[in-house]
Amino acid sequence: MVDVSSGQKGLWLQLQLGYSKAYHNVGFYEANVAINAGNLEIAIKALVDQHESLRTSFIYRMGRPLQHIHEQMDVGLITIDHPLNEDLKQRFSDAGFNLITGPLIRFALFTGEKGEHTLGISVHHLVSDGWTMNVLLKELIKNYEAVQNGIQLVRDPNRIQYTDYMYWEAEESKNYESSIRYWRSKLEGSSYLNIPSDYSSKKQKSEDGGNEKVTLKRAISKAVKDYARNHNITSFTFCFAAVYVLLRRLCNQQDVCVGLPLALRNHEQLEDIIGIFVNSLAIRINPEDKSISFEKLVELVNEEILGAQEHQNMPFDEVVRKLQPERKGAKHPFFTVQLNYVPLASDFIEGEQITFKTIPYNNKTTKFDITFYYKENAAGDISLGAEYNISLFSEKTVKILLNSLESIISHGID
Questions:
Q1: Does residue 359 sit in helix, strand or coil?
Q2: pLDDT, tens digit, for every residue of 8-41?
Q3: Is the pTM of this model over 0.85?
Q4: Using an 8 Å Cβ cutoff, are 131 and 35 in contact?
Q5: 119, 107 in Cβ contact below 8 A?
Q6: How far is Cα 270 from Cα 264, in angstroms, rounded to an integer?
């Protein structure tokens, strides 16, 4: 048994409020060739054998959660003789995991009417993050091709594991003094956003989510990038400032705190490790000048983001433990709205003999009241999305919010 990481501990505590399918990382991938299910299962077994995280379950003992890293864990391949459809996607995504016994990963191979194959992967967030999905699939392709070519797969005893990262994190925690002072100075006295809901407060809040998106006109995207370049900031920072304006108007609050998730894979050695490396930064924007210009607001947002990033290695769970903010029921500490930067990624994951194409999928869940998404495509067009809690907001309202956000951005570049 080993201790959990700070990120795992925060998520584990959240899960004690009730199991949530919102913490399943799910992907579906269409193969360009027919898949040999037997060889794929061998490749999966080798993948699980190689990574401790995929052989991990969780128990509660001596007043704290612990990781149980199994020497072996049986993770098979579910074969479904039916083409993938929306109903099968949802059922596969919603299927829960037993955190005590494991495994916390599941694979399924869907076969279409013409023999085409689609791979489904679902893995719990306690042992993975968004980055993990590409690591999983790339290594699985490599394993599968090796098996196809008659190459025997063996465990590398010297491979860096998630527990190695945890030991580094534990050492790093001895140097949090300046970060504690920083976060205390930024977050003490902050309050939750009072976001008006479309529905009665008596309606029970769920984790069911919806998604909406707006793509900025190409001229506006170009103008945002030109502004960012001329002011030595990023386009994401510009849009963060626009989200602040939107929330300030919506909630009639000058003091706004928004979550910013980051992938803490700051070293090359961490890039191929399967595990949860995500940290959240609470970005609090509270201009002293209530009539601040948008240009000055963008400068302020940039300063706050850069300042927070200097202290990003302190896990959010530790920030909460040290600051002990006032909590309201099951609400997330400090913020209930996030803005997430989605990096540009190819829809294709290629091996030497096989290529998988990512199939778009919305798992219809949400962890926050609203999570805004910033994304650019290969052509440079900026799109802004919103994943929202449908027990709080209607589709109509969220579309209005995104249209308002687009308008704020347009006025900001004038």
A1: strand
A2: 988 888 888 777 888 999 999 999 999 999 999 9
A3: yes
A4: no
A5: yes
A6: 9
